[in-house]
Backbone:
């Protein structure tokens, strides 16, 4: 029975809460909370992607587009029109939902490579729009002066405060997604992964569920994008390119696509790799990512989250 | 015997199914009486599974109508037809191999339940209550088909005979009025075939109509009330087991095929 | 009419706007479109060769083109080898890369599902790209055109001599491949594998070798495309992805697996892109090919020359 155990979740919550305290005490990792902000933002995207690809068996190589939509909608509406950032965040998610539906519906009949390439092409088209529509987006130079976030007067104007904000969202989304996985809807998605014909025969409206999970992943990516924009106060189209979509893929592949924990592991590991551990080897960064992806494909098909089972099987032999 | 007037739960009129130039079903006309077991037999390639696909909404027929309880359903999608009360099993057993035995049947409960995506995310009380009901119903179904002890095993760890029974159980969880079984005895040994046939009889006892595609003639003759013979997409005979057994056209369709294989 | 801002990476010449009529401009777009389209056609042919034998779509196909260009730059410009040596040497090196791709990234996969293969070829393309970035850096490189850069006037449109090389090589490639698949034993063996790998192996054809050969052939064709493209459009480490996507667009437009489809698809795609960039908005140049790809996938995935029934049966 697919049951996600509660104890690890509680431990996880405690670690999240305690982390900045721990980081303050240990020399050398003083900048880790900042990296964790990004890891949390990426986790929001990977959680959605894990549900979409790992559980429902679909593919999207264009999540960067939704990440960008959230970031740009938030940035444009707050800087040009002075609207409340939280409303802009919601608007961004709304736009992402609409765009995801517009792309998702005609993609329903696509599978495998065709679906992968359709999402990939979509992602690149959105990236080109970010670059070209300079009047709105600032073009290749990006946008600056994006305000930070505050709630009822409380300003999230330090790394630690933003860290708690982001990880609060991550935790909420994590729980929400776990609830979906363990529910009737989650079973429907997992059924669709294996056999659309049988799912339909059992009354699952396969088309509707595929759109729903795609839209969900898009909304989460958009939320992440808004949080990203308000943290950096500056965005630039190069963040939302094809390579970022592929990095997201690497995150869930490394963490383990078929396990929602994998989304978080993968985001954490790749973010730290990217910001911290590979800093000295910038020229090798791309090669390392490629090797990780290839290595995972060949030796760790269920990612790190699948390691416990792999070890169990190996011990049994 | 039943006093009620023999009612037809399914009526198929002038069905034509063409795939490009290939005519898979040609001018099919037949009725399925409520509460009985009707078998569809015929040589390989006769169009039996295609007929199932049309009835259950996998694809619409090129021409013709299918009426279920008097309502036309030929243009409905498969999941809508499942909601109306028709469910099925597949020739290639399509179990959800990423789930346990119990979870497979719980998916069968999908069509009679309603918890939505968002409501599930928030784990509302009504969602939890419905989940309990689903689990109970699924267990009850497993008990009916005899797989209750294996509820928490991985579905793909079962031997073929039990996988087929599980698939039937999953179809029953949709609370169908008509269940379409596609070769439930294929690949099974004596004991397993017997178990499958018993199950089908017990399904009939629950007043569920059974439409059955099968190659195992012993099973067909044993349990069917009514038989229909397809050959090259056309119906060449219809009647009781005794009538079909002695029908010269049917004999020729099967034997003729064997001669041509030489 | 307005001014066409031509991205220098593709249009090497500035048009003298005052003297060019609309008809000449359209002709120009057509010529450029067919030239670029020939490159897309070659990428598409490469995709199809691997696909026909293995049912794999090699998302690293564009990297072969990139490597062809950059390695040629290294051998001919940096190392000073004459073209008639550098050309075949480049092809050999890139072919080796293609073979390594098959051996190291494809063959070892024990449970080849569609998703796994997609990810494996993406991984391979990233690795190749990363190595290229490490060796050559991020700057674009140029190759001298094979027969100079004196433009030829053709009814007001301008033809670069290199364009003839491009279209010429496409024709040569098509002819050689046709001869290969229809007249040579190995080629026929490969066609047999494409049709029915089980039957092929039953009659003694080594399917694994045929797969290796298909990757080698695709790599070689990609390399040629890269070499002839670079004098027109320069080459940098990052061009592979876009070329692969557009090449795939040509594949789908023409019909997956179809040889004439690849040619038709490539030429049509290149032309649409050229006209779109010229007439509508040059900043969106790349987007046109992508929009065509999406349109084909959404409307008729079997493409212009493909069959609808076969598309439905395809494993993915």
Residues:
């Amino acid at each position: 029975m697919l049951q996600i155990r509660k104890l690890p979740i509680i431990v996880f919550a405690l670690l999240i809460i305690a982390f900045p305290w721990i980081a303050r005490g240990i020399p050398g990792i003083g900048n880790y909370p900042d990296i964790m902000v990004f890891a949390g933002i990426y986790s929001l995207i990977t959680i959605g992607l894990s549900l979409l690809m790992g559980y429902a068996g679909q593919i999207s190589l264009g999540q960067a587009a939704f990440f960008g939509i959230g970031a740009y909608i938030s940035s444009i509406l707050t800087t040009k029109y002075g609207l409340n950032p939280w409303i802009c965040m919601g608007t961004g998610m709304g736009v992402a939902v609409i765009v995801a539906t517009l792309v998702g519906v005609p993609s329903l009949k696509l599978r495998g490579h065709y679906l992968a390439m359709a999402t990939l092409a979509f992602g690149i088209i959105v990236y080109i729009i970010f670059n070209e529509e300079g009047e709105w987006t600032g073009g290749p130079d990006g946008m600056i002066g994006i305000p930070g976030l505050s709630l009822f007067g409380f300003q999230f104007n330090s790394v630690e405060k933003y860290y708690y904000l982001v990880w609060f969202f991550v935790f909420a989304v994590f729980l929400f997604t776990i609830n979906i996985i363990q529910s009737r809807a989650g079973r429907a998605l997992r059924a669709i992964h294996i056999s659309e014909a049988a799912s339909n025969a059992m009354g699952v409206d396969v088309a509707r569920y595929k759109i729903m999970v795609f839209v969900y992943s898009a909304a989460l990516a958009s939320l992440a994008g808004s949080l990203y924009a308000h943290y950096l106060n500056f965005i630039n189209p190069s963040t939302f390119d094809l390579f970022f979509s592929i990095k997201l893929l690497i995150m869930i592949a490394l963490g383990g696509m078929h396990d929602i924990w994998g989304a978080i592991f993968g985001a954490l590991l790749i973010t730290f790799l990217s910001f911290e551990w590979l800093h000295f080897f910038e020229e090798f960064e791309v090669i390392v990512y490629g090797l990780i992806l290839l290595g995972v494909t060949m030796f760790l098909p269920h990612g790190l989250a699948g390691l416990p089972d792999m070890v169990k099987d190996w011990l049994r032999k | 015997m039943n006093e009620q007037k023999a009612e037809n739960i399914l009526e198929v009129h002038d069905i034509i199914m063409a795939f490009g130039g290939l005519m898979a079903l040609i001018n099919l006309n037949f009725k399925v009486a409520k509460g009985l077991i009707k078998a569809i037999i015929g040589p390989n390639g006769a169009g039996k599974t295609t007929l199932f696909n049309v009835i259950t909404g996998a694809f619409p027929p090129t021409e013709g109508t299918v009426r279920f309880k008097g309502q036309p359903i030929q243009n409905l999608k498969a999941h809508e037809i499942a909601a109306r009360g028709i469910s099925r099993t597949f020739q290639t057993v399509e179990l959800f191999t990423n789930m346990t035995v119990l979870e497979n049947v719980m998916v069968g409960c999908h069509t009679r339940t309603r918890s939505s995506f968002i409501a599930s995310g928030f784990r509302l009380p009504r969602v939890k209550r419905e989940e309990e009901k689903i689990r109970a119903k699924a267990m009850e179904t497993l008990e009916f088909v005899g797989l209750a002890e294996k509820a928490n095993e991985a579905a793909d760890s079962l031997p073929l005979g039990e996988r087929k029974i599980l698939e039937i159980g999953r179809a029953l969880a949709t609370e169908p009025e008509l269940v379409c079984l596609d070769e439930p005895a294929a690949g099974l040994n004596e004991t397993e075939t017997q178990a499958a046939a018993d199950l089908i009889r017990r399904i009939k006892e629950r007043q569920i109509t059974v439409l059955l595609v099968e190659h195992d003639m012993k099973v067909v003759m044993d349990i069917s009330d009514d038989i229909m013979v397809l050959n090259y997409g056309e119906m060449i005979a219809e009647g009781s087991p005794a009538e079909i057994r002695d029908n010269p056209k049917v004999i020729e369709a099967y034997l003729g095929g064997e001669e041509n294989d030489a | 009419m307005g001014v066409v801002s031509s991205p220098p990476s593709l249009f090497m010449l500035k048009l003298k706007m005052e003297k060019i009529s609309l008809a000449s401009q359209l002709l120009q777009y057509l010529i450029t479109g067919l030239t670029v389209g020939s490159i897309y056609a070659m990428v598409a042919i490469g995709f199809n060769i691997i696909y026909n034998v293995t049912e794999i779509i090699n998302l690293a196909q564009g990297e072969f083109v990139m490597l062809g260009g950059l390695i040629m730059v290294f051998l001919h410009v940096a190392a000073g080898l004459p073209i008639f040596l550098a050309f075949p040497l480049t092809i050999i090196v890139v072919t080796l890369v293609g073979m390594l791709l098959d051996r190291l990234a494809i063959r070892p996969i024990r449970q080849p599902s569609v998703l796994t293969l997609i990810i494996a070829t993406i991984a391979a393309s990233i690795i190749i790209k990363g190595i290229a970035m490490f060796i050559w850096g991020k700057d674009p490189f140029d190759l001298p055109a094979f027969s100079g850069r004196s433009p030829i006037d053709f009814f007001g449109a301008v033809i670069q001599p290199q364009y003839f090389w491009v279209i010429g090589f496409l024709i040569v490639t098509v002819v050689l491949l046709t001869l290969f698949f229809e007249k040579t034993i190995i080629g026929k063996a490969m066609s047999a594998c494409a049709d029915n790998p089980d039957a092929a192996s039953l009659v003694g054809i080594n399917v694994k070798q045929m797969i290796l050969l298909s990757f080698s052939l695709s790599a070689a064709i990609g390399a040629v495309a890269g070499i002839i493209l670079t004098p027109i459009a320069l080459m940098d480490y990052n061009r592979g992805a876009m070329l692969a996507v557009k090449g795939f667009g040509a594949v789908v437009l023409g019909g997956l697996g179809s040889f004439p489809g690849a040619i038709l698809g490539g030429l049509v795609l290149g032309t649409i892109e050229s006209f779109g960039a010229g007439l509508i908005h040059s900043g969106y140049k790349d987007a046109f090919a992508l929009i065509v790809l999406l349109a084909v996938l959404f409307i008729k995935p079997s493409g212009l020359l493909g069959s609808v029934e076969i598309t439905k049966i395809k494993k993915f």
Observations:
- Residues 125-145 of chain B form the longest helix (21 residues).
- The beta strands of chain B are 8-19, 22-33, 37-41, 63-68, 71-72, 86-88, 178-182, 209-213, 226-231, 234-239.
